[in-house]
Amino acid sequence: MRMFIVVACIMAICLNSTLAFCNPPKDIAVTISGENIDIIVTHPVSNPSEHYIKTVKVSVNGVLLVQQTFFQQAGNEQRARYSIPGLKKPSDVSVEADCSMYGSLVKTARVE
């Protein structure tokens, strides 16, 4: 029983230390110009080939229109540009970015 407690504590410490190096996206910049949506997800990491923004999802007025999967990021950000035919005023554009290791972030912009 004592050995089980020791092993469980070691595993808990290892898991927590791994999560300490994981971070969710820091910020999402959304720029809308006509039917184009430009997205910059800020996600500072030390190894962008293993720890990166994995998915970007774009919803307009609550309807998911784009979901893109990435396999690495360049530097400390992930960039994307999408064209949404028929994007009209007023509309709410939500962008969700998911980290490959831990966490996500959602930002909403209004088409005006």
What do you see in this structure?
With 112 residues, the protein is α+β, with helices and mostly antiparallel strands. The protein has a single domain (23-111), classed as Sandwich (Immunoglobulin-like), CATH 2.60.40.730. The protein has 1 helix and 7 strands. The chain has one helix at 2-20; strands spanning 27-33, 36-42, 53-60, 63-69, 77-83, 91-99, 104-111. The relative contact order is 0.24.
Question: Which characteristics define this entry?
Answer:
alpha+beta; four-stranded antiparallel beta sheet
Q: What average pLDDT do the residues reach?
A: 86
Domains, number: 1
Strand order of the largest sheet: 4-3-6-7
**pLDDT < 50 stretches:** 12-20
Topology:
Layout: H1 2-20, E1 27-33, E2 36-42, E3 53-60, E4 63-69, E5 77-83, E6 91-99, E7 104-111
Antiparallel strand pairs: 1-2, 2-5, 3-4, 3-6, 6-7
Task: Please provide a brief summary of the model.
The protein has 112 residues and is α+β, with helices and mostly antiparallel strands.
